[in-house]
Design a protein that fits this description.
With 421 residues, the chain is mainly alpha-helical. The chain contains 19 helices and two strands.
């Protein structure tokens, strides 16, 4: 009986194997290969972010602070810029940098399922803390985006201060858009539109490589255009630097009012002594300021309404909305013959166009509140700027503007009373 049972089991196993062989006409493919699909437009950064990289960032910030305050050396700051360009830029391929870390922190705040590592937090917080105590030493020579612009600014010119203020609003708009993009799930716009990361990683989309090259070309004559007019992290650094306990001073000795430092600064970041004819009765200035403060809530409300009305155009920064519009235009025959990877990929999936349009509509609804807050934020910034302009401060010496000064040390060699000048 025992031999009969064994024979039956053997026959059953052979039958199962035979059935399986009949069912599988050929060997199943092996999906676990060593091949890795490369990034075609934005290659990955050099490696994982580790604590030793945070220590290098701290050391670079500390050495820059020494060069700004103690050594007062433009050459030393220039050398640190070269190091930052090579290490934080080309070696680490620009990621993660404190500028981009802003979005990681935003995502951890707005999105419930997203976290952020302590290393990324350290990259975000350290430059802000240094700015709070010593001014924008991060911008001086540690930021890889600033370093590459500082090195190409070989023939900088000064632009009209009024134009500088208008263009400077761009970085507040960029910060608001980046926040709106993260909060609504549209992605990390700062990284997506970074004009220099393609140079550091030797690969990006054609348009962004052209944008980076143009930014550097413009930067030869208009120094640091990205830092001055677009950098969203620069907004936060400027706010911290405004209240900095210590800051670069010009000159360290009694000023002889030669104005060479003012002419040497291409960033319009040195405030001159107040001309006598501009000094006015304090009562007049206070009256003007009170009027602007009274009108500020009206401006903010109008900004919120304007932002709300523009929520549909703003929602196109979200890939689902932009893809939905693309599919709709293709289906109506408005767009013909153009190859678009996203729409081709969508049409090969099982999702229907109706489902996509419904998802896009839900995303657009989310943009109503976010766009209103974005408009209110811009109106608040403009109101604050107008209030600042309404106050004529009485200044007797040349001094750096704490919020906009990059502490780059370009003014050091020009000061006739600077030690060693």
């Amino acid at each position: 009986m025992r031999y009969v049972s064994a024979l039956i089991a053997l026959v059953a196993a052979t039958a199962v194997q035979g059935a399986r062989a009949i069912e599988l006409k050929f060997a199943p493919p092996d999906f676990e290969t060593e091949y890795a699909m490369p990034y075609l437009f934005t290659p990955a950064p050099a490696g994982s972010n580790t604590w030793w990289e945070s220590l290098i960032l701290f050391a670079a910030l500390s050495l820059t602070t020494y060069m700004v305050f103690k050594a007062r050396s433009r050459r030393g700051l220039f050398a640190i810029s070269v190091f930052s360009l090579l290490f934080f830029g080309f070696y680490r391929k620009g990621c993660i940098c404190p500028v981009g870390s802003t979005q990681n922190v935003m995502a951890a705040v707005f999105l419930p399922d997203v976290g952020v590592s302590w290393v990324v937090v350290s990259f975000f917080v350290m430059p802000l803390l240094f700015s709070l105590f010593f001014g924008r030493v991060f911008c001086a020579s540690v930021c890889p985006l600033g370093a590459i612009q500082e090195l190409v600014a070989i023939a900088p010119i000064r632009i009209n201060p009024a134009l500088e203020r208008v263009l400077g609003l761009g970085k507040y708009m960029y910060l608001g858009l980046a926040t709106l993009g993260v909060a609504t799930g549209a992605g990390f716009l700062i990284c997506r539109w970074d004009p220099f990361v393609g140079l550091y990683r030797m690969g990006h989309s054609y348009n962004m490589l052209i944008a980076g090259a143009l930014m550097l070309l413009v930067g030869v004559f208009i120094a640091r255009p990205y830092c001055r007019f677009l950098c969203p992290y620069g907004v936060l650094l400027g706010w911290m630097s405004r209240f900095s306990k210590f800051h670069l001073e010009i000159p360290p000795s009694p000023c002889v009012e030669c104005r060479l430092c003012e002419d040497s600064c291409p960033y319009n970041a040195i405030d001159m002594p107040t001309p006598r004819h501009l000094v006015e009765d304090p009562a007049v200035g206070k009256k003007r300021t009170r009027l602007l403060v009274f009108l500020a809530p009206v401006f903010i409300l109008l900004g919120a309404v304007g932002g709300y009305l523009f929520h549909e155009p703003l929602s196109h920064i979200h890939p689902t909305v932009s893809l939905s519009e693309r599919i709709a235009k293709e289906d109506r025959g408005i767009i013909k013959g153009e190859v678009y990877l996203e729409s081709d990929t969508f049409r090969k999936e099982s999702k229907t166009a109706a489902t996509l349009h419904a998802e896009a509509l839900a995303v657009t609804e989310k943009f109503k509140t976010g766009s209103a807050l974005f408009g209110a934020f811009l109106a608040l910034i403009i109101s604050i700027k107008l209030i600042e302009l309404s106050v004529v401060k009485k200044r007797t010496i040349f001094e750096p503007h704490k919020e906009t000064c990059f502490s780059c040390g370009r003014c050091y060699p020009y000061c006739p009373v600077e030690e060693g000048a």
